[in-house]
Design goal:
Distance between the termini: 8 Å
Number of helices: 9
Order of helices and strands: EHEHEHEEHEEHEHHEEEHEH
Number of domains: 1
Helix content: 40-55%
CATH superfamily: Divalent-metal-dependent TIM barrel enzymes
CATH architecture: Alpha-Beta Barrel
Strand order of the largest sheet: 1-2-3-4-6-8-9-12
Number of strands: 12
Shape: globular
Structural class: alpha/beta
Length: 280
């Protein structure tokens, strides 16, 4: 399994790879800019060069990116949606410049306009982004969500409807977040439950669309629709659910990263990764 964690880029993009190496990551997720600000400085050519050089020599075999939390492709407000598309495009340009494969994105929220309307705006926004990035190699990965507020993507059917409305959907994939799926009401706590959920996902969306995982246990119980990450095996999903995933050979080449809380020394990452590897 390609296991790893989300890493800070403090000190430079290449420092995220160094941090990943420190805790034995095979894969790393990063932000390329602040996740809570619209504006960002252009990537420095020297930073890009150092990053690519470090990754080429690193034991970390995969790096992918998560985009800004401010972006909402499903907003009913035209100006807000236009701003989101512009910011999303900038994120895509940065990922392509770094020669990285994926940009993980929350689908969006309808803000009271209704699910069908929100899903339509998300698909139309992605179509616009695809038109503006013809020839790009990177892919957008829509993340499964917990379903807080009017957030879309917490039902597998939401994801299918987006794919159905996107032209060139081969440029689109899924990032499967274990905490979010569980909080949305899908029971992955047991081997039987896990297999049933994955069968449902395959029937509705297709397992081949899963290109990355976020590995997070849940502080809240099933169906809560609250996004609260917990360390692996210490939340309501528990050991058996993660054991089922770790033993699923269908995903042996898919990168899986932690988004669990950690301190400066990253000891929590070391423990979580050790625990996950013990389940394989």
């Amino acid at each position: 399994m390609k296991l790893g964690s989300h890493m800070s880029i403090a000190g430079g993009l290449d420092h995220a790879i160094l941090r990943g190496e420190q805790v034995g990551c095979d894969a790393v997720q990063i932000f390329t800019k602040s996740s809570t600000q619209w504006a960002a400085k252009p990537l420095n050519p020297e930073d890009i060069k150092r990053f690519k050089k470090k990754l080429k020599k690193s034991s970390v075999s995969m790096v992918f990116v998560h985009n800004s939390y401010l972006i909402n492709l499903g907003s009913p407000n035209q100006e807000d949606r236009k701003r989101s598309v512009s910011a999303f495009l900038e994120e895509m340009e940065r990922v392509e410049t770094l020669n990285l494969p994926y940009l993980v994105a929350h689908p969006g929220a309808h803000l009271g306009a209704g699910e069908e309307e929100g899903l339509r705006w998300i698909a139309e926004s992605i179509n616009t982004l695809h038109l503006k990035t013809k020839g790009y190699h990177m892919k957008i990965l829509l993340e499964t969500t917990a379903g807080q507020g009017t957030t879309l993507g917490h039902r597998f059917e939401h994801l299918k409807k987006i794919f159905d409305q996107v032209e060139g959907s081969n440029r689109l994939g899924i990032c499967f977040d274990t905490c979010h799926v569980f909080a949305a009401g899908y029971d992955i706590r047991s081997q039987t439950g896990y297999q049933m959920v994955m069968k449902e996902f395959d029937n509705v969306v297709g397992l081949q669309r899963i290109k990355a995982f976020h590995l997070n246990d849940s502080k809240k119980d099933i169906g809560c629709r609250v996004d609260r990450h917990e360390h692996i095996g210490k939340g309501f999903i528990g050991k058996e659910g993660f054991s089922a995933l770790m033993k699923d050979s269908r995903f042996k080449n898919i990168p899986m990263v932690l988004e669990t809380p950690k301190g400066k020394e990253m000891l929590e990452d070391l423990e979580n990764l050790r625990f996950l590897r013990s389940l394989v």
